[in-house]
Amino acid sequence: MAQLEIRNIRKHFGPIEVLRGVDICADKGEVIAIVGDNGAGKSTLMKIITGVYRPSSGEIRFDGEAIQGGDPAVIRDCGIEMIYQNLELMNQQDVASNIFLGREPTHSFFGAKTGIIDKRAVYRGAEEMISRLSVRLPSIYLKVGKLSGGQQQSVAIARALTFSPKLVIMDEPTAALAVREIEHVLELIRELKRQGITVILISHRLTDIFEVADRVISLYHGVVSADEQIENTSMEQVVAHIVGASDACKALEVE
């Protein structure tokens, strides 16, 4: 049984149908790339998976259980995390503070929470998360704004791991990074896979996709135009699916 099952998902915004019966599945520990031109429906689909939007119709099942959209906190409790392109980090805060931002461990007094942040637990936990990713950072006491783009991605992924996710969605994680830093982020994705965490990768960089993905799913005008094992396709074929030049896309237009 697939870990994530998306069945016949449709989404309307007024008279406009953005998603038209999307079916996607993902197995535990699989890296799936989702590609598509602007307006293909990628962002809308991710917002449905993470609970930001409710689908107009269709069903999403995770670990065999149906999940309801519209409440990101419920989706997070299920074990689904998303790392957005802008990373949502606080540049003036240090690495450790960013990793536990909004859910800092606090001291207790006779079993009652005091609301006072337990700094020792914050820094100890941050060290553990960074170690789990097998990455090197200059210091967990350094302000995030002083880190490189690839290092900031490490912090964002470490923060996601504090929720013990089963599935991580990454939105354009290598955009605007230097070549050396891109390889660093791709290795982080491989590490998540080694830990049995499922990854959905949203990216326009086909070279990155062919480096780390097990499957590539193409969206075209709100439908899945192709779902292929990475070893059974090519960049040229994926581009054809993205721009609507493939036979599958032409058939969808006829429908």
UniProtKB/TrEMBL annotation:
Q: What GO molecular functions are on record for this protein?
A: ATP binding; ATP hydrolysis activity
Q: What keyword terms does UniProt attach to this protein?
A: ATP-binding, Nucleotide-binding
Superkingdom of the organism of origin: Bacteria
Q: Where is the ABC transporter domain?
A: 4-246
Task: Return the CDD domains for the record.
Answer: ABC_Carb_Monos_I (cd03216)
Q: What is this protein called?
A: Sugar ABC transporter ATP-binding protein
Q: Which organism is it from?
A: Rhodovibrio salinarum
At the highest ranks, the source species' classification is: Bacteria, Pseudomonadati, Pseudomonadota, Alphaproteobacteria, Rhodospirillales
